[in-house]
Amino acid sequence: MAPSPHPIPVLLDVDTGVDDALAILFAVAHPGIHVLGISCVAGNAALPQVVQNTLGVLDAAGAAPIPVAGGAHRPLINPARDASHVHGPDGLGGIELEPTTRATYEVDGHPVAAIEMMRQLLLASDEPVTIVALAPQTNLALLLRAYPEVAPKIARVLFMGGSASVGNATAVAEFNVWHDPEAAAIVLDSGVSTFMYGLDVFNRVAVPLEKAVELQASTRRAERLAGHLISHRMGVGAGKEPVYTGLIGDAGALCALVDPDALRTELVPVFVELAGATRGQTVVDRRRFPGEDSMHGLHEQAGYTEVALEVDAERYIDLYLSTIATLA
After folding, report:
1. H/E stretch holding 234
2. Beta strand pairing status for 303-311 and 194-197?
3. Residue 132 phi, psi (nearest 5)
């Protein structure tokens, strides 16, 4: 893989569970991505576990020093939700990482919170930065509300979340948005350019089981970890057998960053439903003509978001596997 002449500066925002870990491996391996820092938020696991998982995965990737900071312990309004049935109690499906000596971001010997780290890195960048959000968007909402001056330094927010069809947390809501819908609404309404890599494409990029098993036997540490992560079986309910999905999950959003031509997208109004049985739903308005709601002034504040609707799954699988193969 030829080095990119101009890597994209990126801030990752993660709740490092199984698929965030896959995404981190890809992000530090791909020559077209320059990871400036990683902010952590509660989601797939509690915040302290998310931070430890993130540091451990960076070690497994053999990554250069990258600033990592812990952020929000819970959503803006709701309590944190338990996702251990999907990612296991430790967020990584019980995969044991080697102890890490990496520490979180500090200035003058004092830990720095995620939104302050993000502010510093954004303002210090010579060019606009892409924020790749792979988690509930609590940190991003707090950043934009506390430090609105950073908005011009954000090229766009590319987020894994939402759906233009069915949900997974509920019938219509995807987990990351459902976990903190107010935060997602703040980001979508912020005026910052947004790109939604949602369940419509997320659920299609899957590695065959035999390939995952092959990765587990690799002589390369990062590939072995990826194989174990991909092979993790997701719980689907009490008394039911966990199932193999093979999904690279959040890592697909990083593939979208470096290879957007493998997607079919539409630029459409999107807003987040904040009440009732549809709370957390991303309402993706793909109508060709105005409806009664627009005639009566409803949802006039819905901002436009580029939404991924179809994906060349094999192309992203090949991209993912070839990229992590470059890690030691």
Report:
1. strand 233-234
2. parallel
3. -100, 105
pLDDT of residue 192: 98
* Of 124, 31, 7, 118, the residue nearest 70 (C-alpha): 118
pLDDT score for 295: 60
Which pair of tokens denotes residue 138?
């609590």
Q: What is the CATH number of domain 8-290+297-324?
A: 3.90.245.10
Average pLDDT of the chain, as a whole number: 94
Beta-bridge partner residues of 265: 308
User: Which sequence spans correspond to the domains of the chain?
Assistant: 8-290+297-324
Residue with tokens 């797939």: 44
Answer yes or no: are the C-beta atoms of 200 and 165 closer than 8 Å.
Answer: yes
Q: How many CB atoms lie within 10 A of CB 237?
A: 8
- CA gap 181, 186 in Å, rounded: 9
Q: Given the DSSP bridges, would you call strands 8-14 and 33-40 parallel, antiparallel or unpaired?
A: parallel
Question: Which among 198, 199, 184 is positioned nearest to 303, based on CA atoms?
Answer: 184
For position 1, what pLDDT does the model report? 44
pLDDT along the chain (328 residues), means of 10: 72 97 98 98 96 97 97 96 84 90 94 97 98 98 98 98 97 98 97 98 98 96 96 78 93 98 97 97 89 64 89 98 96
**Among all chains, which residue has been given the structure tokens 């540490």?**
221
**Strand duo 106-107 + 110-111: pairing:** antiparallel
Contact 168, 199 (CB under 8 A): yes
Place of tokens 């409806």: 291
